[in-house]
Specification:
- By secondary structure, the chain is mainly beta.
- Among the domains are: about 160 residues, Immunoglobulin-like, CATH 2.60.40; about 140 residues.
- It has 3 helices and 29 strands.
- The strands form 8 sheets. It has a 9-stranded antiparallel beta sheet, with no helix packed on it. A 5-stranded mixed beta sheet has the order 2-9-8-4-6, with no helix packed on it. Strands 1-3-7-5 form a 4-stranded antiparallel beta sheet, with no helix packed on it.
- The chain is globular.
Length: about 450
Amino acid sequence: MQFPPTHLLLLASAHAHVSMVYLADQPASIRNADSATGNGRASVNCYCGGVTTFGSNGIGIAQDGQIVTLGMRYSAGHNGAFRMAYACDTTRTSSLTGVELESAAAMLTAGANECTVQGAAGEYGNGGATAVGQQVMQITCTLPLQNNVQPISCIMGILDQRDWGGCLDVSLVPAQAALPPSPPPAPFVTSAGAYYLQTIGKVDTAAGFVIVGDTGYTFTCCAIGSGQLIVPTYAISDGGLVTATFSADAQVEGCPVTTPDKRMPPPANTATHNLSGSISLIQSEGGNKLTSTATMVGQPFEVVISQGILSLTNIGYEQPILCDGVYHLGRPDPCLKTCTRIGTFSCSEVSKALTCSEINNTLGCDCSGCCNDTTLAPPLATCGPGTCGPGTCGPGTTWNGAIGQCDANCECEAVPFILPGMNATCPAQAPRCSCEMQWRAGCDNPVGALAFCEP
């Protein structure tokens, strides 16, 4: 197999900028949150953070004409015009995926809906309100009357000028109806245990592709790639403190050496930081939610633990050095382990193209428990001694009848590249993109080809 040791696989990370913030008095959970009272995941996946199924994180109760306050946060160093939007399935024919919020008719305004805002750069105007970096912005509006006589399904959310945002799902009861009693408190589910800090939990909130002068650059941030945050056993006490501690091997690699500035070319991503010490978390919701703020890699983070999920959110105003992250309680999944040699590729992705021996010997990574040393997963081609001709060339290669062999036909394009894909995105400057054949013992023809970034 041809796999030059100096070549690195490239993954185009998704840059996420917009996230809803859970408020205790809002009528429902955030659709793309990881828990009932969790903040929405940062994303650029349009209206509901990429989650299009109504009720996928529960359905709350709202009353026709109710005053509602929702929270939104933009990632570090960004700003944008945000608006509250609201839509109902009055005909009972809509799936309420969230696209309904994009309509101009769905926008709630200061004039018609008495919308106000806190934490923005100014008042809520005709175009909504302008966010200020990582500051939480709260928009309050009166829901327009639907005059329904039976409960109907509705969605509400906050979106920016590109329709990036989050939403929540409710059953809207008539204005004159009595609201049902509040549900009993959720049963206590402990958050004690070890949260494994794996690179796969990275949420990249950096600026992404930015043109500085006449040159385009890709800004990114680093992820925690090893160690645990350990939460001790604790007794339920709302307002009480729980002290979580980083394990000795908690480390961040590949970080910007200085704080990135979008007005300048990005700094080198060569810094390494150790995470140490403890975080004092405050209990709420009957011990089911732990929250705090902490400084990591010199920048402020919000820390939220709920229902076995740890969320780290950069709340500073500068471009991030350390990315946001979402991590889970329990034993690490061997297929979620990553190899620092190849960036943010997980063992699951690498094992689709390489055997255990190839991963260990060529890349220096341990994917035991996930990879296979006898067969490669499809779609790589199968072959035997003496095979040749059309149909035996693997993905990323094409049979060339003129020369009687397979040619690599990888392309270097600005598209997502997920191993074992055939395309890659490389910077305009070095490193540049090239195709490399994949070979297997006993095969006359390559079983595939991958795109790489040359050093």
